[in-house]
Amino acid sequence: MTNSFLSFADHSKVWIYGASQAIPLDKASFIQSKLSDFTAAWTSHQNKLHAEAHLINDYFLVFMVDESQNEISGCGIDKSVSLVREISDLTGIDFFNRMAIYLFVNDKVFLTNKQEVSEKLNQGLIDENTLYFDNLVANNHQYQNNWLKPIKQSWFYNQVLSK
What we know:
Layout: E1 13-18, H1 25-41, E2 43-44, E3 47-48, E4 50-56, E5 60-66, H2 74-91, E6 101-105, E7 108-112, H3 114-123, E8 131-133, H4 140-146, E9 148-150, H5 157-161
Antiparallel strand pairs: 1-5, 2-3, 4-5, 6-7, 6-8, 8-9
Helix pairs in contact: 1-2
């Protein structure tokens, strides 16, 4: 996580997009430049948003908007989605696979899916306390405190146990 989000209010809205692969350094600087340029000019109904976006852990595009000054509308959110689609098109990296699961093991991000999580649990390679990134967090408080949590608290845990 980046410390720059610490200055945002707890209720600030968050959107997280996970990449289909670790983002190489040459693409990372390009992506971060696009994110910074976008948030510097990001508006909602012609009102400037207090926002930042960062590439985190070589996998995640994290957008944050503090609505204390101006609220974000659906149109404002659509602008960020369009940017992510543009970045995806320009880099060939998919950011829209909502079934991807990101584990955090030995200070490293591992991209996986439910099938592989089930297999790794059965083989004892991971357990219910293995950390995963909950990209469904909705605000800065959740981002700071619950983005990383044990897989036993995940949306997919009971599904992989039943297999």
